[in-house]
């Protein structure tokens, strides 16, 4: 059968695929994805949060159409343009910080993190990066080498990376999360005190590592340690930032002001766009050392400005907090002994699937639930082996939130009852 999916299998490199079921899409609107045969799916991933405003948001359509019609070229490398400068100014307004600051504009969360990490190494003259186990910061360069998820998958870590354990309130390593936090901070302090650390990079909510929400105050204590040792902290808001956690920035929850903040995904409204915001002393030098020809191009930056204006103008963080609470409540009401935990902030929600007999993670079930949810009409993936990552567009309505919980509940019941074809699911390797 020459379906779109079969043609993809024959034409597109496997190296760039992460598949959970044979999803084919030809269009989308709001929180809905449309398949070639006209089937409508409720999108509970938002393209791993990149389609955070929903599909075909009019503000993005308008901005991109305007930019395409009038775009005078393609990059910010050797010319300036009102939308690239304007986007940088918008970000400086929206990201707290003091002193002289700059914005790096790039294409993906990966290059924003990579550039931020390299800039810290250059400015401090030190090499070691403190990062976290099971973290994800990108698929290229240093950002890849300090990503715990890649290391878990067998990729060689950056030779100068040191990984700290991320405290997990649902599965505390020592049996007591407060003790885990104390141990992590002690280890961080030990490394920071060596004077060899270029920077620390952290996700405010560990996302690909299993949607782990750290205990309140963890980020603040980590940041205080970094300050004490004069080591810059990079807060990676690529996946969780810009409204999703119910605040504009995820780090606001702990009241910290990180030294460098990186953005991606939702920032481009579906187009490739990322940013790193931080001190001029870190991001200005060495000159011409992070050159991507089309970075800061007029089309993506026009989209970025529209996205930021929509998130703030339509109070999407407040909306994510409200609808996220409805969705989390509805998920907690799912009556299934396979649901070990429902956690999250706003519309960043993790549902952990476990073996009811042992309480251990059940990754096989997660793969089957994800597949069954697709059959029942929703797109939801899993992270950390066994955690459904529920990150719908920020424009999700309360009705859609209830429908999402119904589909997920039914998918769990069906998978647990053995109604999912395990052989068929196995064709999609997932992570
Ligand atoms: C927290 C975080 N940082 C960085 C990235 C990399 O972003 P991109 O895939 O756009 O390069 C991701 C991607 O999943 C992410 O989740």
Compact description:
With 431 residues, the protein is α/β, with parallel strands linked by helices. Helices cover 38% and strands 16% of the residues. The protein has 14 helices and 15 strands.
Explain the overall architecture.
With 431 residues, the chain is an alpha/beta fold. The chain is built from 14 helices and 15 strands. The strands form three sheets. Strands 4-10-9-8-7-5-6 form a seven-stranded mixed beta sheet, sandwiched between helices. A four-stranded mixed beta sheet has the order 1-2-3-13. α2 (58-70) packs antiparallel against α10, α7 packs parallel to α8 and α11 (316-332) packs parallel to α13. The protein is globular, with a radius of gyration of 21 Å. The two termini are 26 Å apart. The mean pLDDT is 96.
Regions with little confidence, pLDDT below 50 for 5+ residues:
none
N-to-C span: 26 Å
Proportion of residues in helical segments: 25-40%
- Which quaternary structure do these chains form? single chain
Radius of gyration, in Å, reads: 21 Å
Shape designation: globular
- Binned strand content: 15-25%
Biggest sheet architecture: 7 strands, mixed
Number of helices: 14
- List bound small molecules: pyridoxal-5'-phosphate
Element-by-element helix/strand order: HEEEHHEHEHHEHEHEEEHHHEEHEEEHH
What's the number of extended β-strand segments? 15
The strands making up the biggest β-sheet line up spatially as 4-10-9-8-7-5-6
Derived from helix and strand composition plus strand pairing, the structural class reads alpha/beta
Mean pLDDT: 96
């Amino acid at each position: 059968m020459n379906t779109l999916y079969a043609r993809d299998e024959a034409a597109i490199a496997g190296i760039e695929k992460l598949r959970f079921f044979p999803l084919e899409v030809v269009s989308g609107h709001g929180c809905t994805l449309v398949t070639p045969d006209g089937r409508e799916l409720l999108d509970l991933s938002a393209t791993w949060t990149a389609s955070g405003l929903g599909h075909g948001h009019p503000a993005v359509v308008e901005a991109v159409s305007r930019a395409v019609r009038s775009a005078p070229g393609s990059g910010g490398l050797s010319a300036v343009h009102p939308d690239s400068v304007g986007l940088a100014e918008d970000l400086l307004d929206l990201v707290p910080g003091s002193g002289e600051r700059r914005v790096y504009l790039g294409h993906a969360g990966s290059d924003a993190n990579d550039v931020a990490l390299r800039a810290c190494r250059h400015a401090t003259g030190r090499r070691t990066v403190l990062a976290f186990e099971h973290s994800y910061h990108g698929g290229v360069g240093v950002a890849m080498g300090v990503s715990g998820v890649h290391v878990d998958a067998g990729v060689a870590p950056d030779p100068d990376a040191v990984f700290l354990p991320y405290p997990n309130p649902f599965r505390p390593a020592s049996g007591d999360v407060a003790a885990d936090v104390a141990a992590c901070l002690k280890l961080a302090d030990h490394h920071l005190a060596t004077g060899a650390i270029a920077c620390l990079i952290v996700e405010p909510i560990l996302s690909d590592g299993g949607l782990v929400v750290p205990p309140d105050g963890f980020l603040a204590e980590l940041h205080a340690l970094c300050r004490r040792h004069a080591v810059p902290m990079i807060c990676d808001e690529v996946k969780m930032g810009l409204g999703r956690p119910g605040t504009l920035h995820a780090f606001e929850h702990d009241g910290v002001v990180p030294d460098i903040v990186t953005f991606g995904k939702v920032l481009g409204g579906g187009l490739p766009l990322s940013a790193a915001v931080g001190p001029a002393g870190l991001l200005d030098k060495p000159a011409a050392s992070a050159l991507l020809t089309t970075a800061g191009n007029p089309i993506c930056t026009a989209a970025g400005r529209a996205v930021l204006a929509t998130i703030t103008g339509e109070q999407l963080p407040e909306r994510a907090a409200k609808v996220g609470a409805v969705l989390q409540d509805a998920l907690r009401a799912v009556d299934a002994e396979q649901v070990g935990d429902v956690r999250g902030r706003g519309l960043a929600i993790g549902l952990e699937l476990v073996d009811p007999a042992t309480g251990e993670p059940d990754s096989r079930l997660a793969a089957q639930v994800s597949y069954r949810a697709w059959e029942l009409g929703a797109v939801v993936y899993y992270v950390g082996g066994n955690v459904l990552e529920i990150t719908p567009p920020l424009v999700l309505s309360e009705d859609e939130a209830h429908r999402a919980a119904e589909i997920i509940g039914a998918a769990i019941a069906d998978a647990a009852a053995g109604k999912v074809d395990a052989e068929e699911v196995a064709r999609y390797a997932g992570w």
